[in-house]
Design goal:
The protein is of the alpha/beta class. The chain contains 8 helices and 10 strands. Helix 5 packs across helix 8.
Length: 364
C-alpha cells in the first residue's frame, strides 16, 4: 500500500468508527434503530468504543504525521561493550569507564554522519562525571545512568520511562532523575544513602502509534528490567530497598516485570494500566503505589482491553480505582509530565516511598 492509499485507509477507518459511535449513541438514547443496551453493559461497551475510536485516531495519525517513521535512519554507533555485570562495588569503576569510552566513540561517529544533536548527547554522557552502567548509542539508543553513590546505596529508585524517550530526548528524563535525587538527599535521615538509576533500557513506543496501545514493547522490556534489578542487588546487597518508579507506558513495563522483581515498592505514575486487573494479578510481594495528577490527560484514556486486528489493545483496569488495590497517594494538580517538579506533592511523596518506613525522614 502506497502512502496515499494508506492515508485514505486511515481516514476511512476513523470515519467509520466515528459513524458507528454516533449510531450507538442514538440507540442508547432510544431514538435509533435496534434495542437499547441493558444498563449493565453500558460501561464495558463505552470502554470498548473508546479503545476503537482511540485506535482509529492513532492509525490515522501514525500514517499521516510520521509517514516515513519506519524509514528513519539508524544512527550509527559501536556495539555495546561486552562487560560482566558489576558484581561488587569495586567493579563499578571499570564498568563506568568502559561505557563512557563507548559514548565518546558514539559521539564521534554520530558527528561524522551529520547527527549533531546526538553527537552532543553522547559527548555529555562521556563526561568523566557520568556513571553509566550500560550504553548503546545505536538507533534510538539505550542508557542506564546512576546518580549518586551506588556502591554505598541502601535506598535505590529506578526510573522507568514512558513513550517517546530515547537518547535524543534523554535530557528531560535525566532531569526527572536529578530532581528525585535532590529530594531524596534532602529528606534522607542521617546514615541513609540514596541513589537514583535512570533506566532507558528498552525501545519505548512512539506516542503517535498503535504500538503504544499494546503490551508488546513492555513484554520485551520486562526481562531487561528484571536483569537490572538483579545487577543492582549484586552491588548493594539484599538489604537495600529498591523501588521502580514507573511513568506512563513505563508502568506497563513494570506490570509485566513485577512477578520477577525483588523490590520493596513499585510506583505507578500517570499509568494507563498495567495489563493486570488487580494488584494481586501482578504476583508481587512489593507494595504497589499509584498516583495521577489532577491535570493528567491519561485520566481520559479508556481503561479496557479489546481484541482488534488480531491483537489486544489497551491495558485493563485503572490503577487509581479502588478495586485495583494499589496504595493511592496525592500527586497535586500537575499534568502528565509534572510528577518530578520541585516542590510538588508528587515529588515529596515519591521520596517518602523510596526512603521507606524504617526511619523518619527529614523535610515537610
Amino acid at each position: 500500500m502506497g502512502p496515499d492509499a494508506a492515508v485514505v485507509a486511515g481516514q476511512r477507518t476513523a470515519c467509520v468508527t466515528v459513524r458507528e459511535r454516533e449510531r450507538e449513541r442514538e440507540r442508547e438514547r432510544g431514538r435509533g434503530p435496534g434495542p437499547r443496551a441493558p444498563r449493565g453493559e453500558d460501561a464495558s461497551r463505552r470502554a470498548r468504543r473508546g479503545i476503537r475510536t482511540l485506535l482509529a485516531v492513532l492509525v490515522l495519525a501514525a500514517v499521516v504525521v510520521p509517514l516515513s517513521a519506519a524509514a528513519r535512519p539508524r544512527i550509527p554507533a559501536p556495539a555495546p561493550a561486552d562487560l560482566a555485570a558489576p558484581a561488587t562495588p569495586a567493579a563499578l569503576t571499570s564498568v563506568y569507564a568502559a561505557n563512557r569510552a563507548d559514548a565518546a566513540q558514539a559521539s564521534r561517529m554520530a558527528a561524522a554522519h551529520g547527527y549533531a544533536h546526538r553527537a552532543a548527547v553522547d559527548r555529555d554522557l562521556a563526561s568523566p562525571s557520568r556513571h553509566l552502567l550500560s550504553f548503546d548509542g545505536r538507533g534510538p539508543g539505550r542508557v542506564t545512568e546512576v546518580i549518586g553513590d551506588l556502591a554505598h546505596a541502601d535506598r535505590v529508585a529506578v526510573l522507568v520511562p514512558g513513550s517517546d524517550t530515547s537518547l535524543d530526548t534523554y535530557g528531560r528524563f535525566r532531569a526527572d532523575a536529578l530532581a528525585l535525587s535532590r529530594e531524596l538527599t534532602r529528606r534522607a535521615p542521617a546514615g541513609t544513602h540514596p541513589a537514583v538509576v535512570a533506566w532507558l533500557g528498552y525501545e519505548t513506543p512512539d506516542t503517535v502509534s498503535t504500538t503504544v496501545l499494546t503490551t508488546r514493547r513492555a513484554e520485551r522490556a520486562a526481562p531487561h528490567l528484571r536483569q537490572l534489578v538483579r545487577e543492582l542487588r549484586g552491588v548493594t546487597g539484599r538489604a537495600a530497598r529498591v523501588a521502580p518508579v514507573c511513568h506512563s507506558y513505563g508502568s506497563v513495563v513494570c506490570g509485566r516485570a513485577a512477578a520477577g522483581l525483588a523490590v520493596s515498592d513499585i510506583v505507578l505514575l500517570g499509568s494507563p494500566g498495567t495489563g493486570a486487573d488487580t494488584v494481586a494479578a501482578l504476583h508481587t510481594r512489593a507494595r504497589v503505589w499509584a498516583a495521577r495528577g489532577d491535570d493528567d490527560w491519561v485520566a481520559n484514556v479508556p481503561h479496557a482491553r479489546a481484541d482488534l486486528l488480531g491483537r489486544t489493545f489497551g491495558f485493563g483496569a485503572d490503577p487509581m480505582a479502588p478495586a485495583f488495590g494499589a496504595r493511592v497517594f496525592p500527586a497535586g494538580r500537575g499534568g502528565h509530565s509534572d510528577y518530578f517538579s520541585p516542590g510538588s506533592p508528587s515529588l515529596a511523596n515519591l521520596a517518602r516511598i523510596v526512603l521507606g518506613p524504617a526511619k523518619e525522614t527529614r523535610g515537610d
